[in-house]
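This section describes the prediction task in plain terms. A model, or a person checking by hand, is given the sequence of a single protein chain and must write out its three-dimensional structure as a string of tokens. No templates, partner chains or ligands are provided. The sample shown here is typical of the held-out split.
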Amino acid sequence: MPEALHPGLLLMVSALLIPLLPNRLRAGYLVLVPIAVLALLMNLPEGQWLRVPLLDYTLTLLRVDRLSMGFALAFVIALGAGMGYGLPQRDWREHLLAYLYAGSTLGVTFAGDLLTLFVFWEMMALFATLLIWSARRTDSYRAGLRYLIYHLIGGLFLLFGILGHWAGGGGLEFNALALDSVWAWCILIAFVINAGVPPFHTWLPDAYPTASVSGIVYLGAFTTKASVYVLARGFAGAEVLMWAGAVMALYGVVYATFQNDMRRLLSYHIVSQVGYMVCAVGVGGVQGVNGATAHAFAHIMYKSLLLMGAGAVLFATGKEKLSDLTGGELYRRLPLSLMLYLIGALSIAGVPLFNGFVSKAIITEGLETLGQKAVYLMLTIASVGTFLSVALKLAYFAWFGKPGPERVAQYQTVQEVPRSMHLGMAVLAVVCVGMGVAPSLFNWILPYPEALAVYSTDKVLTTMNLFVGTSVGFAWLVARLQPKPKEILDLDWFYRRGLYPFVAWSVPAVRRASRRVGRLTLARALARSRDWLEARSAGSFSVSDAIVWIALFLLVYIGAYLLVR
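The expected answer:
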């Protein structure tokens, strides 16, 4: 029966055929499967399907409602556009991993219970890591390993939170959770790690820029937005998220402004824009959940488009540093890529007639209703910074800049990217403009459809005044904003610079100490662990037990994390 088909599992099964197809058939197959999955989504009836009995519980693999559908539609559209964009790379391994990654993300989105959620959550982390490694860059392996360790730590918090919640009589159903126990906080921490909430965000700008030209499109679309979904499902109205999201929006935009690497700049803007969504989840209620869903959908569209635009420059020139591109007059060589990129840039900034304006207006209306003027101001400042760094700085220095004879000659032979890449970008551009011009289209994906009266004279004039003033300031200070080839470290300083000398000293010291001790053999260690577990199994699962295990695993993972560098 059609209602029994799980879109995520269908994608994952379809992925298995990718390596078996000849090249001529593979291109069409890669694009047609997301279209078929999109058609399946449009015909899925609301309700709970694929219910599997397990002991005294029932697992729900497919829970369909308006909240899950809004996110699922965005994921599948991004996958289809990304497949068209990534066809010129002709790497079936990356396409295979993208399907598996998207399928596991849909598994998270449709999970009706915490156990199903956990399984797909871990699969999502695994396939994302493999997708990063598929770039085969010298820096992608280590960045991917750091990415995996971060998400394994988040997975541990999620696992212990689920076990404690279940042992405490909370059941396995995945519904709204109250922050009244340590287990609920463990689950929340797991979600915010995957969402990239500072200080748990460094995995994102660290790993994403090392992915391939098309791989980063999938990474930018799936993991953090799946985390926004589970936050909206489980913790809508938690005030701590409102303030965390506001700080997140400012934090990301500040670091983005000073970046020289195009894709690292855009990665920091993922942090910033997800901050809007997390803030909306914290607002809660109809407006908060609607705002988070609308902005997640809009963000997936325009962020994928922006990453494609930056990827087009990288694909055509082999360069991703603004300091290497400025003055090359790429607007003459890549005019269509520039035009499509600017649509994404105006969308993310929240310019009227683009989808970002509508989704941000829904969020700010919720803040105005609550009287949260400080949070509203923080998000407004973040919007100005977004316009400055994405629409002005990146576009100007990548495509324009003061012409240099040597730089112009260097890029004299650069040509536009293949048509399939532009086609993928054009699909997203149409969605960005269409949903901005006709805000009522958002009611297709909002959990609670409403009349969207977002275009008022006051809002439009205020927004345009801010952006015009920012443009004037950029023109005045453009010489001082010239990108420089330098590395700007974030909290990753602690493992890239601050702790590296300690690790370099401690690792040989630990090895020497382990040789001297040597008396505790592996067999004895396992025996002692077995005795400890048997003693614990006679009692109940307590908070202290969970803390001990979490601390143990964190020590192991953090140690491995440091050793990577």
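For orientation: The two ends are 51 Å apart (CA to CA).
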